[in-house]
């Protein structure tokens, strides 16, 4: 399926639920369960390859994993591409599209330097990816301010500023990751409406807030890994 088909699934109030996979086998399970899209989890993919999260896995290995996943399913695939692995916008877009994926997460954390990139810099990076990919890529712009903030309301204005800048730069969806405060999330959704918002949490509750996309992130991987660890203890 095309990027346009994936884009059309982002409907505020009727969120697209994404159980995140980490290899071809788990991607097939997601498709077989009836989900219309397969999303990846960077931490889970990196762990399966033997690396920690945070762009510690070589880009070529992450892209190779995405290729295997996209080849294994017939539904659209969107890749958690972290912060772009230090690649220029055109190179990132070319390499990602070559995997067969039609979507990506693209975050504003600077893994090389630490902290968040300035909003203008990140907006320029998003614009470069959009310019290179055209409409062939659904860009989910991750906003990481809530990862480091004990008080979500205190950083809400910055999150809204970033969201608007990223949308203006060509993002299809904005993702204030780990923003779980219902009231603050509702304000965020209203501030960027009618744009699509990705969030984490219960489907019914987020649908009421007008969220268009829900990610489980590393949830399934952690659950599977936890079950296996306990089962191995029992066997031992």
UniProtKB/TrEMBL annotation:
What the entry lists under InterPro entries is as follows: ICL/PEPM, Pyrv/PenolPyrv_kinase-like_dom, Pyrv_kinase-like_dom_sf
Print the keywords alphabetically.
Lyase
Q: Where are the transmembrane segments?
A: none
The UniProt GO MF terms for this protein read: lyase activity
One of this protein's Pfam families, by short name? PEP_mutase
Q: Could you tell me which PANTHER family the record lists for this protein?
A: CARBOXYPHOSPHONOENOLPYRUVATE PHOSPHONOMUTASE-LIKE PROTEIN (AFU_ORTHOLOGUE AFUA_5G07230) (PTHR42905:SF16), PHOSPHOENOLPYRUVATE CARBOXYLASE (PTHR42905)
Q: What is this protein called?
A: 2-methylisocitrate lyase-like PEP mutase family enzyme
């Amino acid at each position: 399926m095309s990027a346009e088909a994936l884009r059309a699934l982002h409907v505020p109030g009727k969120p697209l639920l994404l159980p995140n996979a980490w290899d071809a086998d788990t991607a097939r399970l997601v498709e077989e369960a009836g989900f219309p899209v397969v999303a990846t989890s960077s931490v889970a993919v990196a762990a399966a390859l033997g690396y920690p999260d945070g762009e510690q896995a070589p880009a070529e290995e992450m892209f190779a994993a995405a290729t295997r996943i996209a080849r294994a399913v017939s539904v659209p695939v969107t890749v958690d591409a972290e912060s772009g692995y230090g690649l220029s916008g055109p190179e990132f877009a070319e390499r990602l599209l070559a995997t067969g994926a039609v979507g990506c997460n693209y975050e504003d954390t600077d893994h090389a330097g630490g902290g968040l990139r300035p909003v203008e810099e990140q907006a320029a990076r998003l614009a470069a990816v959009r310019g290179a990919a055209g409409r062939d890529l659904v860009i989910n712009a991750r906003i990481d301010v809530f990862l480091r903030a004990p008080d979500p309301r205190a950083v809400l204005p910055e999150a809204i500023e970033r969201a608007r800048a990223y949308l203006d730069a060509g993002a299809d969806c904005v993702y204030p990751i780990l923003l779980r405060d219902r009231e603050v999330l509702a304000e965020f959704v209203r501030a960027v409406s009618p744009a699509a918002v990705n969030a984490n949490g219960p489907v019914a509750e987020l649908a009421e807030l007008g969220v268009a996309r829900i990610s489980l992130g590393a949830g399934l991987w952690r659950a599977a890994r936890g079950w296996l660890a306990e089962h191995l203890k029992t066997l031992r």
